[in-house]
Design brief:
Elements (H helix, E strand, L loop, with lengths): L8 E3 L6 E10 L3 H13 L4 E4 L8 H4 L20 H6 L9 H14 L6 E2 L4 E7 L4 E6 L4 E9 L21 E4 L14 E5 L3 H13 L2 E6 L6 E2 L7 H19 L19 H14 L15 H18 L3 H6 L14 E2 L2 H4 L5 E5 L5 E4 L3 E4 L3 E3 L2 E4 L8 H4 L2 E3 L6 H4 L18 E3 L12 H22 L4 E3 L1 H16 L30 H13 L5 E3 L1
Helix pairs in contact: 1-13, 13-15
The structure holds 3-acetylpyridine adenine dinucleotide.
C-alpha cells in the first residue's frame, strides 16, 4: 500500500496557491539523486521527484567533460552495488572510465529503473522553506512554480559548484575561456592555439597531457606543485571482465568494510619498520602498478609525518627522474604539504608532458598572476599571450551547491547564515532546526575521502531506512539536537587531527581554496566502515541524537 501523500494538487498553507505535493523532493540527478529516487519511489512506494538544472542525468559527470576527464577509482567498483542485475548487465571498457562512459552508465541506470518519468530536468531549485504548521517544505524552482514535500533530500554533489577565481580583467580577454567543471558539449579545438591552464589539482593534471597533444603551445600556471602517481589506465580484457564478475561479491564486501570505500588491502606494516631497501621495492611496485593504491603501501602514510616523508620523497625522486630540465623538475616538486594530505591525483604522462617542446610551466607562487589582459595572462614578471584559458581551479566543494539554494528552516533561519562559521550538522546527514531535510554526502561525512559510490549508497540507504521508520511509526518530523551536532563537529575535527590532512593548509577539504569561505575541515576522516557502523548503531538506538515527533 502506498504511503504517498496526495501527489496531485493540494492547497498550501496560505490557501492562495495550489502546489503539487510529493512525499519527497530530491535535488540533483547524479549518482546520489538517481539512487535516492529508486529507493524512495520503488522500495518505500512514496511519491518522489528529482529536480536538476542540467538537461540530462549525470550530476558532476554531466558537467565535467574536459579533455582527459576520467575517474580515479577503478570502473568496476566506481558504480552502484545495489542491484546484481545491473552489475551483470553492464561491462566497463577501461580500468579508469572516461567521463562519457560514466554518463552512459548513469543514463542506463535511469532507463533501467524507469527513473526519468520522475526527473524534471532544466529545473533549478531556488529556495526551500520549512513550514511548521504542516511540517512540510515548500520548494520553489526557477520557473516560478512551487512544490510541497514532507522530506527534502539534497543530492547536489560535493564537487559541482565551480570556482572561477576573481582575477581582474577576465571580461576583457579576447580569446575563449572555460572552466573544466562547466565544459562545452562540443569538443574544443586547441589545434594551432596558445593555451593556458590554471591549476594543477586532479583536473589540471588529467587535462594537461591531453591539451598538450593538440595545442600549438600549452602554458601551465601552477600555484602549488602536486604529487601524482601514474594511473596505468588500460582497456579491460575478457579475462579482467571474467575475474570481475566472478569476484564481485568479495570486491563489494571489501569496499564496504574498508576505511575509504576502495576494495584493496592497506599494508598493515609501518613504513618505518622495514628496511630502506624493502620500502623502496614496495614503492617501486606500487608505482608500477599505479593508481590510488599507492597510498595503501603502508598503514601510517597518512598518520605519521616521518612515514609519509618516505613516500613523499620517493615521488619527488620520480619527478626528478622523469622531468629532464632540472629547473622545471624543481618547480614541479611538491614540498609544502605531505603526500595525500590533499586529494592525491593520478595521471597519464603528466610529468612527462613537461619534456615536450610545446609545454612550459609558470610558477605563480613566486610570480603571481596580476591580471588577465585582452591578449592573455599577465604575471608579476611577464605577459603570456593566449588564445584559450582553461580554469582547472576546482570547486566550492562540499557546501557550495547547497548554499546557492536559499534553504530556510524553523523560524525562517537560513542555512547559509547557520553555517557562517562552518557546516555544523550531525553525521553529515541532518542539520539542527532543518527538520526532514537530509543531505547525501554532506560535510561531516566521509564523502570525498572515499570511493564515492560506496559512501553514496550508505547515505541513500540510511535516509531511506530513516524515512521508512518514520512512516512506520507515524512520525512527522526528525532533526538532530544541537548537542549531538556540536559533538559531531568535535568528532570530525578530532578525526582529522589524528591524520596529516590538516597539514595541507590550502586544501579544499578545509574550504581554503575559496576566498571568504569559513575554514573548517569538512569531510569525516574516521573511516568509511566505522562511520557506516556508527550510523547504523545510532538509528538502532532509537535515532540517538535526533529529535523525532
Ligand atoms: O580542483 P583542486 P580539481 N590562481 O581544487 C589552483 C575531484 N576530481 O578540479 O593548490 C592560481 O584540487 C589550485 O592551486 P592551490 C578530486 O576529488 C576527481 O583539480 O590552491 N591557481 C589547484 O592547483 C579532486 O581533488 C576526479 O595553490 C589557482 C587547482 O587550481 C577534486 O575533484 C577528477 C587559483 C585546483 O585544484 C577537485 O579537483 C578530477 C588561482 N586563483 C577531479 N585558484 C576523478 O577522477 C585555484 N588554483 C573522480
Amino acid at each position: 500500500m502506498s504511503h504517498a501523500m496526495n501527489d496531485v494538487a493540494r492547497t498550501s498553507a496560505d490557501q492562495s496557491e495550489t502546489v503539487e505535493t510529493y512525499d519527497a523532493i530530491i535535488i540533483g540527478a547524479g549518482f546520489s539523486g538517481l539512487y535516492q529516487l529508486h529507493t524512495l519511489r520503488d522500495q518505500l512506494n512514496l511519491s518522489a521527484v528529482v529536480f536538476d538544472v542540467a538537461d540530462d542525468v549525470g550530476g558532476t559527470w554531466y558537467w565535467n567533460r574536459y579533455p582527459g576527464a576520467r575517474c580515479d577509482s577503478e570502473s568496476y567498483y566506481y558504480c552502484y552495488s545495489f542491484s546484481k542485475e545491473l552489475q551483470e548487465d553492464w561491462r566497463w571498457t577501461e580500468l579508469y572510465p572516461q567521463h562519457d562512459e560514466i554518463r552512459r552508465y548513469l543514463s542506463h541506470v535511469a532507463d533501467r529503473f524507469d527513473l526519468r518519468r520522475d526527473i524534471r530536468l532544466k529545473t533549478r531549485v531556488e529556495s526551500a522553506v520549512f513550514e511548521e504548521e504542516t511540517n512540510t517544505w515548500l520548494v520553489s524552482i526557477d520557473a516560478g512554480k512551487s512544490y510541497r514535500c514532507r522530506f527534502l533530500v539534497s543530492a547536489v554533489g560535493v564537487l559541482s559548484s565551480t570556482n572561477v577565481p576573481k582575477i581582474s580583467g577576465l571580461e576583457r580577454f579576447k580569446g575563449e575561456w572555460y572552466h573544466t567543471g562547466n565544459w562545452p558539449h562540443q569538443p574544443v579545438d586547441f589545434s594551432g592555439k596558445a593555451v593556458g591552464i590554471i591549476g594543477t589539482g586532479s583536473t589540471g593534471i588529467q587535462a594537461t597531457p591531453v591539451v598538450a597533444d593538440q595545442a600549438k603551445h600549452l602554458t601551465v600556471f601552477q600555484r602549488t606543485a602536486n604529487y601524482s602517481v601514474p594511473a596505468r589506465n588500460r582497456p579491460l580484457s575478457q579475462e579482467d571482465q571474467q575475474w570481475i564478475q566472478e569476484n564481485y561479491d568479495e570486491i563489494r564486501l571489501k569496499a564496504k568494510t574498508s576505511s575509504n570505500g576502495h576494495p584493496f588491502d592497506v599494508n598493515q606494516q609501518s613504513a618505518l619498520e622495514v628496511s630502506e631497501e624493502v620500502r623502496r621495492q614496495r614503492y617501486e611496485d606500487a608505482w608500477k602498478a599505479g593508481g590510488l593504491r599507492f597510498r595503501a603501501s603502508y598503514k601510517d602514510l597518512l598518520q605519521d609525518k616521518a612515514a609519509n616523508d618516505t613516500a613523499s620523497e620517493f615521488i619527488r625522486e620520480k619527478i626528478r627522474q622523469v622531468v629532464k630540465d632540472p629547473e622545471t623538475a624543481e618547480k614541479l616538486t611538491p614540498r609544502d604539504h605531505p603526500f595525500a594530505s590533499k586529494r592525491p591525483p593520478i595521471d597519464t604522462n603528466y610529468f612527462e608532458t613537461f619534456n615536450r617542446d610545446n609545454v612550459s610551466l609558470v610558477d605563480v607562487k613566486t610570480t603571481p598572476i596580476v591580471e588577465i589582459t585582452e591578449a592573455g595572462i599577465k604575471t608579476s614578471d611577464a605577459e603570456y599571450p593566449l588564445d584559450v584559458i582553461i580554469f582547472a581551479t576546482g570547486f566550492d566543494a562540499m557546501t557550495g551547491s547547497l548554499l546557492k539554494i536559499d534553504i530556510r528552516g524553523v523560524g525562517g533561519r537560513s542555512l547559509k547564515e547557520t553555517w557562517a562559521t562552518g557546516p555544523r550538522n550531525y553525521l553529515g546527514l541532518q542539520v539542527p532546526h532543518f527538520p526532514n531535510f537530509f543531505m547525501v554526502m554532506g560535510p561531516g561525512s566521509p564523502s570525498v575521502l572515499t570511493n564515492n559510490p560506496v559512501a553514496i549508497e550508505q547515505h541513500v540507504e540510511w535516509i531511506r531506512n530513516c524515512i521508512g521508520d518514520m512512516m512506520g511509526r507515524g512520525l512527522t518530523r526528525i532533526e538532530p539536537d544541537l548537542t549531538a551536532a556540536d559533538n559531531w563537529v568535535d568528532e570530525v575535527n578530532r578525526a582529522a587531527n589524528k591524520t596529516l590532512l590538516p597539514m595541507a593548509s590550502s586544501s579544499w577539504y578545509l574550504g581554503a581554496n575559496v576566498p571568504g569561505k569559513p575554514r573548517a575541515f569538512m569531510p569525516y576522516a574516521g573511516g568509511m566502515a566505522y562511520y557506516a557502523d556508527l550510523c547504523k548503531e545510532i538509528a538502532g538506538d532509537d535515532y540517538r541524537g535526533f529529535i523525532t515527533r
